[in-house]
Amino acid sequence: MTENTIIWIINWFNEHTPNLEVDLMNHLEESYFELGLIDSFGIIEFITAIEVDFSIQLTPSHFQDRRFATIKGLADIIDSLVSK
Amino acid sequence: MRDYNYNRADFAEALRSVGAKTGDILFSHSNIGYFGYPAEGKSSNIACQTIFDAVFDVIGDTGTLVVPAFTYSFARGQDFDIQHTPSTMGIFAEWVRHHPDGMRSQDPLFSVVAVGHRAREMVHNVPMNCFGEDSFWERFYKVDGLIANFNFDTGSTYIHYIERCLNVPYRYEKPFTGNIIGGGVSRPERAIFYCRDMTNPDTDASFEYLDEIAMRDGVVKLARVGRGEIKGIRAQAKYRYIADTLTREPWFLTTAHTRKISPILSQITSEKIELADKNMLEQLQVLSHIERGTMTDGYDLIINTLGLDVKTFPTGTLFKDLYVPEKWELISAKVSTLDGQEVLSHSYHPLQVMGHSRPVNKRISRTELLQHIHTHPTAIPSVERFGITDWGLSASEEQIACLNEAEYHVNILTRFTFHELRIGYWYKDFGAHKTIVVYTHLGSSGQANFGLSGVMVMREVMHKLEQSPYNIMWVVSPMAFWGIECTTADLVILLDEVGHHGTLHTVLHGTAMNEVGEMFVNDQTKKSIAHSNFNEATPVIKITRVLTYPERHTHLDTYALTQQHYLEATITWLLNKFEGN
Description:
The complex is a heterodimer of chains A (84) and B (581). Chain A has 84 residues and is mainly α. Chain A has one domain (2-15, 37-82). Chain A contains four helices and no strands. In chain A, helix 1 (2-16) packs across helix 4 (71-82). Chain A is globular and about 35 Å long. Chain B is an alpha/beta fold and 581 residues long. Chain B has three domains: 8-258, no CATH class; 280-322 and 420-578, Aminopeptidase (3-Layer(aba) Sandwich); 327-417, Glucose Oxidase, domain 1 (3-Layer(bba) Sandwich), CATH 3.50.30. Chain B has a seven-stranded mixed beta sheet. Chain B has a seven-stranded mixed beta sheet with strand order 11-20-22-21-23-25-24, sandwiched between helices. The radius of gyration of chain B is 29 Å and the shape is elongated.
């Protein structure tokens, strides 16, 4: 499940980040903010897409979870919500 | 269904409910995207303007907003341009940094930007100790500002200020150097960062538990805004809460707490060398081969071998202007031609690498390489540099002359960790009213006359001295700390370079007032120095056989230059001195 979620996240970044040259599979545990994949305003669109496609609701406690800023960590959070 | 998540009035109301009021000084870490879209518009610029306006709706014309604009410049080996160096603290912090009224502090690692009535008071002329006295963080504490985090937990960089005030064991002061550029002028500076050991995963900052218990205990106020939330806590309340919790849970701000362990902060080797079957010159020969730069395993090995009592000073302890550095481990170092031929190597001689060199691994031009090499006409010079963010090598001019390629590959692999400076000492209380303190140092790798000859002489004196009208103290330190740790005595002797041929000189080296010395010597010699006048300067003499010689401070200063009878004559001289003859 997590692997599919990771692929979904990577595809989203590939579609929304112009001129992305890094292979995100090699950066699963790095902050996507620090990788320059998204800024703190672009995250709004990202969150909306996650909530719609996975039919889940993200809350402030998820945003403050340090895992939220990495592809791997976010995939774990999404999967834990989907399984509920 | 509305197509926005909050507006300016919602934000202002949330701020008030976490405690913000007119005239407040706010410090905010932020990730404003998590609030969602503001009603005022769906651009990041409008979102920033909306939040900024809401903040000043609450704190008013007499209020001040401060945001982080950290760059970590010096720690990254970069210069810091006050006006232009960007930070990565989020779009709101960057927006405030570009605000026409924004004033940025000159801190080359943890600069902040302030806007409002007391902006100048908060950021002007901050010191170079990032979390020290009169830093922004101390000023913020004194005015009891409000930490209002936008979609961040209760953690804040401000916590490092609290940790420093409380002297937590897992952080320490570390100097970094670089240039600060401002007003068109570049000036060299040294900044002090209260850092942690980056190689120790157990001391990483971890504020989740703080957030959990601070919320549970009601010391943090929370307000929802749009999709996100604001958490507010007063600076002084946060200080008190953390200070109180640290007394019960000393690791609660680190990953060690999560792992339920008490971390090992430093490891000292217990190894020593057996010297009993060797004469003084043979002992000198054995010890001279030990790689023993300041704060290295080799240095600790020799201290263990000498069998002295040991006083320890953790990394970050300040001696006058010199901070005790981290432990330095040289794993490998070499310079190669692009086709892989090794031209300089640590395996040839350990002095080939500058002591406390930073790691580097890159292809560089000959010109750049030479800028990093310390040279000597005929030998490899001994060079150590602390507190600089640079790498370096040492080579003879003969070696330099062989570097004819346009480009090279340099690969220096070193490691820095939290450690303890170990000062060896021997104190013999003869019940006298006066105390003589003799300082020796361990010199550098491969060297014998420099440093080590004095140590070997005092080791013999220690065994032979039976009576004296003085109390005698002998101190062994690294060269960099030679004589710096103690100035409280009736006479200070600096003993060095006594195994080479030449007349024994006693040179008045000046005088020293007791300053830092009290932290070291007083507890050892308090009986005798109770009779001394603390406020008078102590005469310092240097005892040496040679004032200069060609091999001095180089890899050629080997044990072969040192002769037994010069060492023994020095022992006799010292015994006479100590016995009052």
